[in-house]
Amino acid sequence: MWNCLIAQSGGPTSVINASLSGVIASAIDSPKIHTVYGAINGIQGVLKHQLINLTSIFANEKGKLETLKTTPAMFLGSCRYKLSNIQEDETEYNLIFDVFARHKIKYFFYIGGNDSMDTVLKLSRYAKTHHKDVQIVGIPKTIDNDLFGTDHTPGFGSAAKFVATTMLEISYDTYIYDLPSVTIVEIMGRNAGWLTASSALARNTYNASPDLIYLPEVPFSTYDFLNDLKCLQETKKNIIVAVSEGIKDKDGHYISATNNPCSDAFGHAKLSGTGKTLEHIVSKSLKCKVRSIELNVLQRSAMHIASLTDIDEACSVGNKAVQYALDGLSGIMVTIIRTNNDPYTIEVDYVPIEKVANKEKNIPKDWINDAHNDVTHDLLDYMSPLIHGEPQIDYKNGLPVYLDIQHLHSDCKS
């Protein structure tokens, strides 16, 4: 009998552990898989041979798997590590597949976003070229919703629900004061504005905020921005703005406090202070009360406001990944296909990893208004079903009960 190995990578979400639970449950139930292993800190954990036995942790305790579904972030830890180009150096690949061989790993599951799918692509190509009998399957996750080839990504619905809820609560906080104000809410999104756009879900019969939304898919003009605010001030006292951290001017320069942002291992700019930059511009120009709020990492793992739809779908893609691997499929990413919007229904499918890796899905331009300061109803209709439902979470001493992650503490690693 063969074993399987699971790893997680990239930024955390509220539901990436639900995908992990789906893989573990299906793998443990399969007569073709003997032991389920987990790599600590993604592909780096494989390279360092830091594996834990997930079968021994979860096989006889179904309650733990249920708790795993509603434990935020990554039970196995994460990394942002770019494998070397195969044509230039195969050292890392030889090490990885040596670990696979030593532990009789026939199925490898990598749960992650855009950069993680680059890893899936490289490993699957190496396996094919060197005739390695290992099925390699990518499982999607990202709050940014920018993965190509899938209707949406597990993790986005819960993050969108957090953003919309937070925006509604910010509105309540803002409207209590009887003085002119501008509140700027900075939301994650380097090149794709899905998460910022989700702030519009906060609107209802009595709340029109956010009043303005600025996304990285279209150029940002400081002049137009200030003019938008001035026009609104003629009819509204308290103005709330949602802005993506990655907005850029017509020349492609980030509207950020960091003039020359450094990059991570995958070449992505590390942004900082977009909201604060706009706060200074507005304060100087409009002479009114201005506040900027950066949601930052809070929007990534807010399990207390997660979407049950998101959790269920994340678990389903984990289940399906195991089925595809057992069927002999490799070099694929599991995907979600929307089959109907009202009532909302989906199917789980897959695409070749070549159609996903190193690509990015942006908001369609016709889902952004002509003034580039708001979104259309088509985008709202797309996002709305993804935030529905609330999970049942156990509490103890007033706080949610999550799984123990002591194995991630640096002083606990061998």
If you had to describe this structure to a student in words, what would you say it looks like?
With 414 residues, the chain is of the alpha/beta class. It has two domains: 2-155 and 303-359 and 390-412, Rossmann fold; 157-299, Rossmann fold, CATH 3.40.50. Helix content is 33%, strand content 19%. The chain has helices at residues 16-29, 42-47, 54-58, 62-69, 91-102, 114-129, 156-175, 194-197, 222-233, 274-286, 308-326, 377-383; strands spanning 2-8, 33-39, 51-53, 105-112, 135-140, 181-187, 212-214, 238-244, 289-294, 332-341, 344-352, 395-396, 399-400. Strands 3-2-1-4-5-10-11 form a seven-stranded mixed β-sheet, with helices on both faces. Strands 7-8-6-9 form a four-stranded parallel β-sheet, with helices on both faces. The chain has a two-stranded antiparallel ribbon with strand order 12-13. Strand 10 and strand 11 (344-352) form a beta hairpin. It is elongated, with a radius of gyration of 22 Å. The two termini are 28 Å apart. The mean pLDDT is 93.
